[in-house]
Amino acid sequence: MSKNNGNGRDERATNYDEMYRGQFHFSLRSGWLNDINGLWYNDGLYYMAYQTTPDSPAFSMEKCSMGLATSPDMVHWNERGVFLRPSELGSPGSGSTVVDLKNCSGLQRTDNPVFVTLYSGHTSGVCIAYSNDLGESWQSYPGNPVIPSPTFDPRDPHVFWHAATDRWVMAIYGPDNGNTSFYTSEDLKTWTFASKLMGFGFECPDIYELPVDGNGKNTKWVMMKASGKYIIGTFDGVEFKSEHAEHYDSVFGLHFYAAQSFYRDTFPDRRVVQIAWMGNWGAPFNTAPWNQCATFPAEMGLCTLSEGVRLTRKPIAEISRLYEWSKKWEPQTIAAGQNLLSGIQAQSYDLSVEIDLSRSATNAIEFWLPGKWVTYDVKNRTLMGKKLDSSGDRLKIRLLVDWSHLEVFGNEGEYYWSERLALPPGGGSDLKLAVGGNTELISMSLHKISSSWR
């Protein structure tokens, strides 16, 4: 039995105010964080499992463990410690967690629903850990591994309940590179190979069903791999059939990996909410005693664009719970050289701008954060160098800036950029909105975000 007490963690004191630490992006008090390993909800609490090297800000496969945090709102998180550690099954790799309400697994021992985590044992295969006391303690299933694989391939199981076929489904990377396999189970313990999705997959798959343009009678399935590339199609509980050969990008920028969505059957509403590892690999700055963080939770959607149905991503509405103060601007014409953000210095904020391009004479719309320019090229219709067509000549750009964290959303989430910035917090100068000619502002709002740690 593993108690969720965090033994072995570097408990150096912190006020969560070190240079570069985000104030509304989840990071660990100390230690290394990478893949999100399970998201679920039960009885008023959201749960997030994650991969961690708990006693060091540097990753170690030999010491790789799984930690847990809980939140009442997906915004304020509380670390609950480490619940899976290296064992004879190997270091716990990536996976997912479900709430077994029907006790299909037979592992429930109390009145609480049993939480079942399926993960990759580094030297053994797919393994099970389960909790009967709402995540306070966890036990290893005696029959581990449930899918033997001493070569760590296949790995990274994403498990969900498929109501139409009345059984559990596992999407898992491998067992050969570049493909995703599907398994099915009645009890979460005995798994049967169902099909293989050829030519799509690399680590940490995520799969979910979404309505198109909000129409619940027209739904499609989305299959995503660790990089954020995705395909859209149908899934009948056995086989995923893609509607297109191309692998679409849902993410631009440098720092996004291994996203997972919340387990759907106990989630309190019909949203699909996803969180990813917002790693800063290669970024030249030291964040000790903590290292790495998570993206801000995002609501996923499908919308119809001129080129077809595409995935969207936007910050969850709960971000408004962190707004400390807000400022809004009325519709107006912005002249070249005019800066509506003059005099505003902020380290953590949510900035939204809507522009009418049909009545604007500028060649570019630029934001200074400071220390980083975010540019929309009007002629080429690109945001930070990536294509973003405006809908009916209305351009919407939303920036989540959180000390060293930058997430950019374009046109209701049709575009998404994720990046960690090696910048001093605040940058020491005003924010800036710069245009090259008369620009018609439809609306603009800036919300100063208070620390979620306090």
Pick out its properties.
mainly beta, Jelly Rolls, six-stranded antiparallel sheet, Tachylectin-2, Chain A, 454 residues, 37 strands
Structure description:
This protein has 454 residues and is an all-beta fold. The chain has no helices and 37 strands. Strands 20, 26, 27, 28, 33, 34, 35 and 37 form an eight-stranded mixed beta sheet that branches. Strands 1, 6, 7, 8, 9 and 10 form a six-stranded antiparallel beta sheet that branches. The radius of gyration is 22 Å and the shape is globular.
Can you summarize this structure?
This protein is mostly beta strands. Helix content is 0%, strand content 49%.
Task: Describe the secondary-structure layout.
Blueprint: E1 2-3, E2 31-42, E3 45-53, E4 65-71, E5 78-84, E6 92-100, E7 114-121, E8 125-131, E9 137-140, E10 147-148, E11 155-162, E12 167-173, E13 180-185, E14 192-197, E15 206-212, E16 215-224, E17 229-235, E18 240-242, E19 248-249, E20 252-253, E21 257-261, E22 272-277, E23 290-291, E24 298-305, E25 308-315, E26 323-329, E27 332-334, E28 348-356, E29 364-368, E30 373-377, E31 382-383, E32 386-387, E33 394-402, E34 405-410, E35 415-420, E36 432-435, E37 439-449
Parallel strand pairs: 2-23, 20-35
Antiparallel strand pairs: 1-9, 2-3, 3-4, 4-5, 6-7, 7-8, 8-9, 8-10, 11-12, 12-13, 13-14, 15-16, 16-17, 17-18, 17-19, 21-22, 22-24, 24-25, 26-37, 27-37, 28-33, 28-37, 29-30, 29-36, 30-31, 31-32, 33-34, 34-35
